[in-house]
Amino acid sequence: MPYVFQVLSSLLECHTAQELPEMYQAILPALLKSNLWETQGSVGDQSTNPNSFLFITNLLSNLGNVPALVRLLQAYLHRSTTNIIVNNQLEAILGIFQKLLASKLNDQLGLELVSSVIRYVPT
Question: What is the per-residue pLDDT across 69-78, written as a single tens digit (0 to 9) for each?
């Protein structure tokens, strides 16, 4: 799954047109949903026990998505800040930043995301 996000971010970074195609605009709302950013599984009580195999498997599989998702959001911020602001999606991105910052494993990625917000969102 992370490879899909990496390929999309590379394509978006190479995109030079002023207006993003409809395909890219349709993907962004799905990226802002919290289930992509979760680091725990939801398979009953076994997945919430830190010593269980399911918990560790779900944790590792979801952790691989986070760096690629952050890179993709950074590409969106760089190429489509106006659309993000017009569609009121900046608050969701800041919520993702807050979630990443609360995690010891992903706090650096959260700081990278907010630095892109500071860099690309006009004041």
Answer: 999 999 999 9
